[in-house]
Amino acid sequence: MEVSDAAYDVIRDLLFAHSGQEILPSRRWRIPTALSGLFRELGIDNLDQLVCLLSTGRDAELPQRVAEALLNNETYFFRDRNYFDNLSQRVLPALAVHRAATRELRIWSAGCSTGQEPLSLAMLLAGQPRWHGWRVSICATDLSSRAIKAARRATYSQFEIQRGISVTEMLTFFSEQKNRWTARGDLRRLIRFEQRNLLDTPPAGGPFDLILCRNVLLYFDRQTRSRAARRLHEAIAPDGWLMLGAGELLPEEDGLFCPEPGNHGLVRPRPGCGVSRLPAASAA
Ligand SMILES: C[S@@+](CC[C@H](N)C(=O)[O-])C[C@H]1O[C@@H](n2cnc3c(N)ncnc32)[C@H](O)[C@@H]1O
Questions:
Q1: Contact residues of ligand 1, CB 6 A cut-off
Q2: Quick count: other Cβ atoms within 10 Å of Cβ 29?
Q3: Distance 14 CA to ligand 1 centre (A)
Q4: Are residues 180 and 226 in the same domain?
Q5: What is the DSSP string of 72-111?
Q6: At what angle do helices 47-56 and 5-19 cross, to 10 degrees?
Q7: Could you tell me the residue range of the domain that residue 165 belongs to?
Q8: For position 203, which CATH number holds?
Q9: Is 194 helix (H, G, I), strand (E, B) or coil?
Q10: Distance from chain centroid for Cα 156
């Protein structure tokens, strides 16, 4: 399906306003495919009709539905397993020492999609006896209300459950009914799900000792990555850890985080640096 320049402009601006995500011209062909489910729900056939509906402003929820349909929610359990190994072998043992006095661990999964990432963390922690008796909380947020609804259900198809976890993990942490796999209650109780834009005020429950923000920044432009960095910096404990996705970077010029040498995706707040150091132009 052809995407006219006018329709592309409307959809690109709408997505950017709602999420900070960009659709580059080279990816505009994706728009009709991504929106085909919404076309069916609305009983329309094409993008021009959708743009027309949007222009009437009659359905206040339509822009959010369009933005959600365009977001990439791809995820799976223990995505990039070596990153989780790194958490398990390096970050969590360090936090166990540094938080021994309070025995409290606060984690934020920012851009958690349908919940596989925070559940992977919950499985990791449940498998480590050192956390028993600790107050562990995982806050899991995503812009997409559909993704958050699915994450709260924590029930996965046979296809989804097989992506990333071993048969032993599947049988230990999930129960099966009619080919649908639901996460154990004790894992789900560790996680608080919230629909939230990463570019808005961070969720309550911080400062966070560990933040995972993986495969979310990929479609942000430089300025929006700065805004996200500022939010993440507001939310993280001064001695906390932030894990990004493979190949993701925060703008170095902002000076808010510095990479941990040799550690997959890990960055830490730069000592003594405050939000006020950001140039005014990149403030939210
Ligand atoms: C590709 S998924 C990554 C999920 C998971 N972090 C992982 O690595 O498997 C990206 C998620 O970021 C969410 N997202 C995109 N822009 C966002 C924003 N501005 N605020 C919060 N979530 C956002 C999308 O809805 C999507 O669920």
A1: 19-21, 71-75, 79, 111-113, 117, 142-144, 147, 197-199, 214-216, 245
A2: 11
A3: 17
A4: yes
A5: -----TTSSHHHHHHIIIIIHHHHHHHTTTTTEEEEEEES
A6: 60
A7: 81-282
A8: 3.40.50.150
A9: strand
A10: 18
pLDDT more than 90, % of the chain:
84
Residues 229 and 150 in one domain: yes
Atom of ligand 1 nearest to the CA of 142: 22
Where do we find the tokens 């170095």?
252
Cis before 238? omega within 30: no
Rounded to the nearest whole angstrom, what is the distance from the C-alpha of residue 143 to the centroid of ligand 1? 7
Instruction: Render pLDDT for 112-154 as a digit per residue (tens, 0 to 9).
Output: 999 999 999 999 999 999 999 999 999 999 999 999 999 999 9
Report how far ligand 1's centroid is from the alpha carbon of 129 (Å). Answer: 30
Run of H or E residues at 276? none
